[in-house]
Amino acid sequence: MKYIKPLSLTWWSSVVPLCAGIAVVTVPWHGSQTSVDLINAISQDWPPSMMINFGLVGIGLRGAVGP
Known about the structure:
Order of helices and strands: HHHH
Shape: elongated
Number of domains: 1
Largest sheet: none
Strand content: under 5%
Distance between the termini: 11 Å
Number of strands: 0
Radius of gyration: 13 Å
């Protein structure tokens, strides 16, 4: 449970872009274009790879630094 801290705000601020990036990448499978349009509007058209990497780096740093 080193990397999963659901009560931490920093953990949630890393999980949200990770899930958003995964949602954008998997739009052909789930077909919800409206949610992808909303994510793109909020993220100012960041590429999905950037959102996923941002989320993974944040979770990794949170696990390495935090108790």
